[in-house]
Specification:
- This protein has helices spanning 18-29, 41-51, 66-70, 72-80, 103-125, 150-169, 208-221, 230-241, 243-269; strands spanning 9-13, 33-37, 56-58, 85-88, 133-137, 176-182, 225-228.
- The chain is of the alpha/beta class and 272 residues long.
- The protein has a single domain (9-269), classed as Rossmann fold.
- Helix 5 runs parallel beside helix 6 (150-169).
- The two termini are 33 Å apart.
Length: 272
């Protein structure tokens, strides 16, 4: 068990399912009051009910709508009496080669995955109390770019860079800033699985709960960054530092990933 979170107040985006919902549940179990943020009001209210009306409340908002985010911290403070933790988890991915996407799709990924966390962090930071924490959920794709996911890779790389800089800036306020960089995660975020690059499936799959545990660890321990799975993070670092090696390894990893993806699709179709 880490530091006491009893009575702390957290905002979690993308909180209606997957990593965000799991993180919100774990925070609430530790005694936090949790503001759940996501676009779909009904799903968000169901999540709040699941966690408990005394522990969580729904704040429906599209993170791409900055006007909706501008007053969110003050609204949460009015509801719960303070603000201590921000988890930027909401994400978007339009998969495919750049020329297969519209310009609007390519930029929308940047807006949701990078601009929105920057905006929400800025409006929250001045309200977060001493001893607080900000955790940004990035990706291994932010450590080494993924073929046919240019905007997504760029957004997550930018989020890592942003996090590292503000970690230094907010240190004097006793606010920690961390990044969690998962590989493939077994959630509906995959969308059309057939469109997911084979390379993504070359790495071991994490669960939403495992990624949420990493988020909590960052809050507890002030860890600057967690890449997961561990060895996938090391491989991503090597791939970034040695692009020629990454190009040579890619066909091997894609072959392995294609087989893993085939098995994953079969498993999902069989209802396992």
């Amino acid at each position: 068990m880490g530091k006491s979170l009893h009575g702390k107040v957290a905002i979690v985006t993308g909180a209606s399912s997957g990593i965000g919902l799991s993180a919100a549940q774990k925070l609430a179990a530790r005694g936090c009051k949790v503001a759940l943020v996501a676009r779909t009001k009904n799903k968000l209210e169901e999540a709040a009910s699941l966690i408990g009306a005394d522990k969580a409340a729904a704040f429906p908002a599209d993170v791409a709508d900055f006007s909706a985010l501008a007053n969110l911290p003050k609204t949460v403070i009015e509801r719960f009496g303070g603000l201590d933790i921000l988890v930027n988890n909401a994400g978007l991915n339009h998969r495919g080669a750049l020329l297969d996407l519209t310009a609007e799709q390519a930029v929308e990924v940047i807006t949701v995955n990078l601009s929105a966390p920057i905006f929400l962090t800025r409006v929250c930071a001045e309200h977060i109390r001493s001893g607080g924490a900000i955790v940004n959920v990035a990706s291994l794709a932010g450590m080494v770019p993924v073929f046919h996911e240019a905007s997504y890779s760029a957004s997550k790389a930018g989020l890592r860079a942003f996090s590292r800089v503000i970690a230094e800036e907010l240190r004097e306020r006793d606010i920690t800033v961390a990044t969690v960089c998962p590989g493939p995660v077994d959630t509906p975020f995959f969308g059309e699985i057939e469109r997911v690059p084979d390379l993504v499936f070359s790495q071991p799959m994490s669960t939403a709960d495992e990624v949420a545990d990493a988020v909590i660890k960052c809050i507890d321990e002030g860890t600057g960054e967690i890449a997961m799975p561990y060895f996938s993070g090391k491989l991503a670092t090597i791939g970034y530092l040695l692009p020629p090696l990454a190009r040579k390894l890619r066909p091997i990893l894609e072959k392995r990933g294609a087989e893993n993806k085939r098995r994953y699709i079969e498993k999902k179709r069989s209802g396992m």
